[in-house]
Amino acid sequence: MKNTNKKALLEELNEEDLNIYYYWKYLEPLQKAKEWNGPYIEEEKITFTEFENKYRESKYLYKNTLSTLAIKYENDFLGVVTSYWKDKKSKWLECGIVIYKNNNWEQGLGSQVFKEWIDYLFKETNANRIGISTWSGNIRMMKVASKSGMIEEARIRRGRVVKGDFYDAIQMGILREEWQNFKNISSK
Questions:
Q1: Cβ distance 92 to 127 under 8 Å?
Q2: Helix 139-147 × helix 109-124 angle, to 10°
Q3: What is the spatial distance between Cα 94 and Cα 117, in angstroms, rounded to a whole number?
């Protein structure tokens, strides 16, 4: 399908997407996205089979609600949006976005799909709040979250170390009723 509206699309990951996702996450030599997406988290390299099994185990938040979607632009896999329950009892959902292809950064695609992702999560779950966790060096993520109506809720000073330097750990979030107000204001 030709994307004539110049928007990125969110789609369920197919087998080919899963292979591409694994490549960008573990095999791609430059790992530019990792410089911004949780560079303070040491990730153990796993095999594709382990990756695939892990994906399938956490594929759904609920029976028919996907926890991860592919970001596509003109049928090209760019990255993923993800989510997981931080605390199911308090209905606290965490989410994220990674665009692996850096030639697609700074084009507004991340802001567009992140808003769609938040909307999907509020529609398809009983989440009371949706949040993100990042670090103060990731200005783009904080801007995307802010453009999506999220506010900074916590700043843990010098809570992250990236390449030997200290950065603040940042928590941003939005409540269900705030999202409804944000959508109403944004659509005018």
A1: yes
A2: 50
A3: 12
Q: How far from 126 is each of 14, 61, 69, CA to CA, in Å?
A: 26, 10, 19
Report how far residue 83's alpha carbon sits from residue 105's, in angstroms, rounded to the nearest whole number: 21
Six-digit token string for 158: 């010098």
Cβ(65)–Cβ(58) below 8 Å: no
Produce one character per residue of 150-178: b if its CB has 16 or more CB atoms within 10 Å, e if not. Answer: beeeeeeeeebebeeeebbbbbbbbbeee
Residue with tokens 């040491």: 42
* Ordered per-residue pLDDT tens for the chain, 188 residues: 334 456 889 999 999 999 999 999 999 998 888 999 999 998 899 999 999 999 999 999 998 999 999 999 988 999 999 999 999 999 999 999 999 987 767 778 899 999 999 999 999 999 999 999 999 999 999 999 999 999 999 999 999 999 999 999 999 999 999 999 999 888 76
CA distance 103 to 93: 30
Could you give the domains of the chain?
9-186 (3.40.630.30)
CB crowding 46-72: b at 16 or more within 10 Å, else e: eeeeebbeeeeeeeebeeeebbbbbbb
